[in-house]
């Protein structure tokens, strides 16, 4: 039985996944895995999409590499997708959302090309990642939060930190 939970923090690029994951890891002691970096460090790429300017992850290689540690618990997985991770590994899925006008400015500041910017904006507007989470995990595992301003980060981290404390307390008492 795990003594620490596993959390996925997901959302469209630019919503604040990594900022949230780093802050939650610092507050809780859970280990933060930024999946893009992990995939690169562990040879889990299967080429590059030049049109979008992004790497293509080999999901089977990625899961094989993660399987050595993540099922034991204590991890925050930070990525723009969530449905490939086995349900048995995951205790909480946090889908971060952002207002379209704010997200557009964030992505434009990253100098995303037009196609990549439009694709990510469409994904946010159509709630693609929220629907992906709903299709892969139980509704009670999923939390949708907003990240439009800096104050949202502090509030969201506080909520996740409280959730981790409650999860550990429940496990301690056998729930």
From TrEMBL:
PANTHER family named in the record: ADENYLATE KINASE ISOENZYME 6, POS9-ACTIVATING FACTOR FAP7-RELATED
HAMAP family: Adenylate_kinase_AK6
Enzyme Commission number(s): 2.7.4.3
Organism: Trichodelitschia bisporula
Annotated Gene Ontology cellular component terms: cytoplasm; nucleus
Positions annotated to bind ATP: 14, 16-19, 110, 149
Keywords tagged on the record: ATP-binding, Cytoplasm, Hydrolase, Kinase, Nucleotide-binding, Nucleus, Ribosome biogenesis, rRNA processing, Transferase
Domain of life: Eukaryota
EC class: transferase
Family per similarity comment: Belongs to the adenylate kinase family. AK6 subfamily.
Identification of the protein by name: Adenylate kinase isoenzyme 6 homolog
InterPro entries for this protein: Adenyl_kinase_AK6, P-loop_NTPase
Transmembrane segments: none
UniProt-annotated location(s): Cytoplasm; Nucleus
Record region (NMPbind): 34-57
General function of this protein: Broad-specificity nucleoside monophosphate (NMP) kinase that catalyzes the reversible transfer of the terminal phosphate group between nucleoside triphosphates and monophosphates. Has also ATPase activity. Involved in the late cytoplasmic maturation steps of the 40S ribosomal particles, specifically 18S rRNA maturation. While NMP activity is not required for ribosome maturation, ATPase activity is. Associates transiently with small ribosomal subunit protein uS11. ATP hydrolysis breaks the interaction with uS11.
GO MF terms, alphabetically ordered: AMP kinase activity; ATP binding; ATP hydrolysis activity
